[in-house]
Amino acid sequence: MYTKTLGLVLRETEYRDSDKLLTVLTRARGKVTLRARGVRSRRSPLKSGCQLLAYSEFTLFENRGNFVVDEAVAQELFLPLRQDIELLALASYFAQVAEVLSREEDPDEALLSLTLNALSALCRPNPPQQKIKAAFEMRAACISGYTPLLDGCAVCGNTQPDRFLVRSGTVQCAACRQLGEEGLHLPLSPGSLTALRYLATCPPKRLFSFSLGEQSCRELSDVAETYLLTQLERGFFTLDFYKSLGVRPV
Fold first, then answer.
1. Which CATH class is domain 2-76?
2. How many Cα atoms are found within 13 Å in the side-chain-facing hemisphere of 207?
3. What region, left, alpha or beta, does residue 131 occupy, with left being phi > 0 and alpha being psi -120 to 50 degrees?
4. Half-sphere exposure at residue 143, Cβ-oriented, CA atoms within 13 angstroms
């Protein structure tokens, strides 16, 4: 039985002599594992559409629940990412996060669209990597059910608190911190708080359309990364590699 679906290649693994196993986030089926036969040979017509971070239309042959790629037509290859090691590393981190958050045979249009939009944002001239990364991380957390409570201080209700409680995903005034209270509290300026609220509620297509000062952007970056990794209770080797490149905050 043959079927077609659009999907983004999140991971590729060499298999046997010339095959690959692909982890693909598809629109129709959620996360699926595909076998691309002979794709590592020079003349394979599948090569372009089956590479990491390719968004392709796949024609699949299904046999007893296993999927084999019969045809792969690339719709978007995000070429600028393949010409810059920093951008490729950051894009690979986005793909790994999407792989962890997605589920087999469970479509997640919001997560797929977020990842595609983040990759597209990185392809623009001189992309603000720190801002794009923070926006992706916070929105990924929200999509996955970890939306923080940002309306006001969890203790006094003040609408302009200045601390973010990472473990609970709440905000608080520094003066309201309870004696003996444990957990990481990260500073929030008015700018970074406004940005957090925007990222949690804005339309998907406007996610990266906000401006932020340098100090507030650093605060937002710290909050978004720490919050996502804390809620998922894990790290990412792709993030470690990205940081090892000594990327300048922008």
1. mainly beta
2. 26
3. alpha
4. 25
